[in-house]
Every structure is written in C-alpha cells, then in structure tokens.
Amino acid sequence: MKKIALFIITLISILSFTACQEKFGSDVVPQAPVSIVGKWSISGFGTITNIKTYEATLQEIKRTPKIDTTMVNALATGVSFDFKQDGTYAAGKTVGTWKTKDSNKTIDLITKDNTGKESVQTFSVLELTANSLKLGSKKFTKNASGNIEAGDFSDLPFMLLGSLAIGVKGSQKEFDDATFLQGTLIFKR
C-alpha cells in the first residue's frame, strides 16, 4: 500500500512539473514587479464619473478653443515626476518624499514649506505598468443642488483637474448628470 501511495505522489509531482514546464517553458524568467521608481512625464488628464470615464491627451486639450494653450504647454514641459529609490521625488521645482500604502494602491507625496510644515497629497494609483502611470486625485461629489462640494481652498486645483477631461471630451449634459467626479493624471515613461 505504501508503494502505491509513493508511486502516486511521485507521478503527480512529475506531471505537475512537466505541466508547468509546458505552460511556461524552461526559459521563462519571473518578472520583477512594476515599480513607480523612475521618470514620468505627463501625457494627459482624465475625469472619472459615475457614468463614464473621459481621457484627453495634452494635444487634444491644446486643440480645445476655450483652454489657454500657454498653460497646457507649461504642463507638458513642467509636469514630470522623478521618483527615486530612496523615497524622494522631484516634480518641477517641487521636491519631497513619497511613500506608497494600502498595498501600493495609494501614494502620498509629502512636501515641506519654508517653515517646515508638512503638506501631504494623497493619490490613488489607478494604473501602473512598465510605461504607464495613472494617478487619481480626490473624488468630488455633487450636493442635492447639483453643485460640486469642494472642501477648502486647497481642494480647488483638484476640483479643476477633475473637470478638465470632461470639459474637453464630454458635454455640459454629461457634466450635469454626473453625481461625482475624480480627476486623473496620466503619465508615460
């Protein structure tokens, strides 16, 4: 009986090894996890709503008549992130530290003002591949009157970011029908 059990275990082990080798090949090298470390350049903006997701490249935003191309050009050349292995980052003239949390689902960007007071901006990591990074800003909801509920003045840039892509790719009706919106920053290596 022991010989039969040993034979079955050996057979299962050999079949499992052979099956894995056929599926993956003997020359498959495990891939290292994708890392946020490196240089990222802005390539567009997005708006996520309860109805639809909108994404607009910098070129599409530049072609929109009501948007100042000077601002878009400044964004194209000035908004890039360089995340270093040691937990520091540089974004244009801004430098600080970064850390991921929640199993790399969020990233905190920490800066200090000239008095040493810390400021933390938290983004959702919505997508991270070898060459693509999408960060989500704060989510804004609309109240019963249909107005976006922004917290304080520091939320204003994120509220504007949240409405940028829908302003380029969507309609006023789509904006009005949305009950929440969240802006995204889209980066490429």
From TrEMBL:
The UniProt keyword set, sorted, is:
Signal
Residues in the signal sequence = 1-18
Superkingdom as given in the UniProt entry = Bacteria
Q: What is this protein called?
A: Lipid-binding hydrolase
